[in-house]
Amino acid sequence: MKLCLQFCWSIEQYETGANMFEIDHITEEFNKKSNSLYTILRSSRLAGSQRAPFLRQFLMRLNFNSFFETTARGVMNSGRLRPGTASTQL
């Protein structure tokens, strides 16, 4: 919520002078935190629990267009080399 308020404040200030660095920072932080939350909620420990009967339905609605799943997968793979790239860099 804090990031949303910062974003709104930045947009309001946009008319007087655009600070794209701040907006980019807010966007980056939002992506990190939302992907982290989605990954935690998606964990088998929580999603498979009988104590959270509506969690799977919530996750399905949250990820209706596969945005979070694709983004989370991209974040997890960003630190790894793709097959075949190591030999071309040598």
Structural key phrases:
single chain; 90 residues; mainly alpha; Gamma tubulin complex component C-terminal domain-containing protein; cytoplasm
| Helix fraction bin | over 70%
Mean pLDDT: 75
How many strands, what sense, and barrel or not for the largest sheet?
Answer: none
Assign the structural class, choosing from mainly alpha, mainly beta, alpha/beta, alpha+beta, or little secondary structure. Answer: mainly alpha
Shape: elongated
Gap between N and C termini: 46 Å
What's the total helix number?
Answer: 6
Query: What kind of assembly state do the chains in view correspond to?
Result: single chain
**Uncertain spans:** 79-90
Topology, number of strands: 0
Structural topology:
Layout: H1 2-13, H2 20-42, H3 44-47, H4 55-62, H5 67-77, H6 85-89
Domain Gamma tubulin complex component C-terminal: 2-68
Protein name: Gamma tubulin complex component C-terminal domain-containing protein
Subcellular location: Cytoplasm, Cytoskeleton
